[in-house]
Amino acid sequence: MPDLLALVVQQSINGIYLGCLYVMVALGLTLIYGVLNQINFAHADFVTVGAFTAFFTATRFATKVLGLPDTGGYLLSLVAALGAGALLGLAVNAAVFAPLRRRGTDELRPLIATIGVSVLIENGQLALFGPIPYQFDSPLARETLRVGRIFVSAQSLLVMAVSVAAIAALYAFMRFTFIGKALRAVAQDRETAGLMGINPNLVIALTIVIASALAGMAGALLGPVVVLTPFTGATLIVKAFAIVIIGGFGNMEGTIMAGLLVGVIEAFTVQYLGSGLIDLVVFAMLLTMLVVRPTGLIAERKEENV
Amino acid sequence: MKNALKPVVVALACTAAAAGAPFAAQAQDKVIRVGVLMPISGPGSYFGVMGKEGIELALERVAKTDLNGHRLQVQFEDSACSPLQATNTVKRILEQFRPHIVIGEECSDASLAIAPILEQAKVVQLNAGSVTMKLTESGYKYVFRIFPNAEQQSLPLAKVAYEKLGARTAVILHEKTNAGNDNADGFEKPFVKLGGKVLAKIDFGRDVNDFTAIATRIASLGKVDVLPTFALEGQQVRLSQALAQARVVKGGGGNAVQMGSIWLPWGYDQKAGPASIGYVRIVQFDPTEKRNIVQDFIKAFKAKYGADKTPTHINAHAYDTILLVAEAVRRGAKDSESIREQFSKLKNFEVTTGRITFDRKGQNSDLSVVHFVETQKDFSWKGMSWR
Which of A50, B111, B311, B368 has its CA 20 to 30 A from that of A37? Predict the structure, then answer.
C-alpha cells in the first residue's frame, strides 16, 4: 500500500474509533436534551463513575473473587458499568431532578442542579479514590491486529463494535417499541402525551436511566484508553457538548454524524496541522455551525428529534 | 429586638475571640509560619496529595530536633494548579496567616502567578515542583527553587541523546504549558546546536486522552532516533502505549528511544508496561539509591503510609523543603528576611533528592541531583553513568 494511502486509512481508523468514543458520551446528553429540554452538566461524571465501576469490577471482583480470566473480567465490567450508570441516573433523578420538576421551577434551577451534581460526584470520587491516576489496562488493549502497515488494537475494535451495537439497539428501541414511542411522544409534547395515558414522569425517569446507563458503559470503554482520575469526565464534557451542538441539540442521528466527523477531523488535524490546534479546529467548526446552520448537521423539526 | 440580637452578638464575640486566638498563641511561641500552596483539588491534585504526605512526614521528623527554640507552624492551602486560585489564596494567607515562607506551587503557571505577590510582600517562596525558566530568571529576590529547571533537565537530555545514544533526529512531545514549552525549547536548542535535527515538535493540551493519531503521525515522519517527552504521568503512560502500538519505540519493537525527565514519578514503568522498555530518563529521586538519608526517608514513609507504598519524587521534594526550612532556622533564621539570607548562604546541603546550593538567582545549581536511568525488561531501572 502506498505510504500516503496507508496513512490516510490509518488516520481514518483512528478518527472513527475516537468518534465512536465521543458518540458514546454524547448520545446520552442529546437524549436527555431531546426529552427534557435540559442540559446535563453531570453527564460526563456518570461516564467517570462507569469507568471506576468497570475498573474495580475487572481488576478486583471479576478476576480475584469470581476467578474470571482478564478478558472475561473486562467484558463483565462493561455490564457492571452499564448497571452502575443506570442506578446512578435513577438515584439522581429521584433525589434532585424529579423534585425540581414537581415544583415546576424555571429552566435555570435544573441546569444549576446538574452543575451541583457534577461537583458532588467529582469530589465524592476524589474522596473515595484519591487524585492519583489509575492504570486501567484492558487485556484487549494489549492485542494489536495488523494488516500490512495498518494497525488497530482489539480494544479499539471493541469500542467500535459496542458503539454500533448500542446505537442500533437504541434506534430500534426508540422506533419500534411502545416505550420508545412513548418517549418520543413526551419529547414532542409532554402534556398531550400525558392526556394519552402516558406517565411523563416515568418516561423522563426512563430517559435519564437509559442516558446514564449509556454514559456508564462509555466509561467502561473509555477507562482503558484515558487517564483515569475523578476528573476524567471533565476533560470530555466540553467536546461532547460541541458534538451535540454540531449535530443538532437533541438529534440522535446528528450527534452520531457529528461525533464521527469530529473524531476524523481531529485525527487529520493531528497529522497535518498539529495536535495543539485540535480545539481551535473543532470549536471553529462549532461556531461556524452555530452561525451558518444553528439547527445542526441534520435540521429536523423539534418533534422529530430523539 | 434586643433578645433577637443577643445570639448574634455572642456569636460575633466568639468568632472574634477564635480569630484572635492563633495570633495570641503566635505571640507566645517562637514560631516560623510556613504557608503551603498545593493543588489539593482538580486534575493536578495528585501533586498536592503527595506533597502533603512528604511535608507531614518531614514535620514529624523535624519536630524531634532542636530548631533554636522555634517550631514550624504549617498551613496547607489548595491552589488547584490554577494561576487564579493560587493568586487569590496567596493574598488571603498573606493577610490572615502572615507566613514567613511559602512552599509551592507545583505547577509552573501557578508558581509564576504568586511569585510577584510574594516578592512584593518580601516573603520567601520555596519551589519544589515547577520547571519553567521564568521563575528564577525574572530577577525575584525571594524565589528559591530546589527543582531542576527546564534547562537543567533538557540540556543533559540533549547531550546524552546526541553523544551517548548517537541520536541525530528527534521528535519532541510536550504539553502546552509554560513548563512543557520551556522543556521542549531547552532540548531543541542544544540538540540542534550539536548537529541534531528536530523533525517535529508536537504539543497537546492536558485534556487529550487518545494518542493514537499522534503516534501514527510520528510513524509517518521517517527515522526518528529519540522522542523527548514532557507531560504528566497519566498522559505519558498512554502516549508510550500508543507509540509502542505504532511500533515507533523500542518497547513496541521500533527503534526510537523515548526520553523524559522529572515529570515522571516512580511507578510509571509498571503502569506503562512493555511500552516503557528502553525509556531513558533523568530522575532526581531514586528509591534504589543507597544514601542513608534516602533509605531513612523510605523507611519512615513506609512506616507512616503503608509498606506497599514507595515514595515518589513529589513526596521527596516536599519532604526536602521542610528539611531546608528547618536547616535555615537551625542556622539562625527567625523571619522571612533571615530565611532568605540563610538560603542564599546554603551550600552543599544534603537532602533526599541530592544536594542543594542556591545560585544568585535562587536556583539550585547542584546537578548531582540529576542522574540517568533506563527502563529494563522487568521494568526496573538501570542506572547510567552519563553526566
Answer: A50
Say whether B273 and A142 touch across the interface (CB within 8 A). Answer: yes
**Smallest CA–CA separation between A162 and chain B, in Å?**
18
Look up the pTM and report it: 0.81
Residue in A closest to B207 by C-alpha: A235
Instruction: Decide if A302 is inside a domain.
Output: no
The whole domain housing A99 covers: 3-230
Instruction: Give which of A88, A124, A109 is closest to A205, Cα–Cα.
Output: A88
> B151-283+371-384, which class in CATH?
alpha beta
pLDDT digits (tens, 9 = 90+) for B330-373: 999 999 999 999 999 999 999 999 999 999 999 999 877 677 88
CA–CA dist B174, B230 (Å, integer): 5
Overall number of domains in chain A: 1
- Is A241 contained in some domain? no
| ipTM exceeding 0.90, yes/no | no
Taking the CA of residue A199 and the nearest CA in chain B, the distance in Å comes to 40
- Taking CB atoms within 8 Å and a gap of at least 24, the contacts of B341-347 are B343/B124, B343/B126, B343/B144
Nearest CA in chain A to B49: A131
- Asked if B220 lies within 8 A of A3 by C-beta distance, the reply is yes
Nearest to B43 among A130, A137, A231 (CB): A231
Beta pairing partners, A134 = A228
Verify whether the Cβ–Cβ distance B237 to A153 is below 8 Å: no
Domain(s) of CATH 3.40.50.2300: residues in chain B: 31-148+293-356, 151-283+371-384
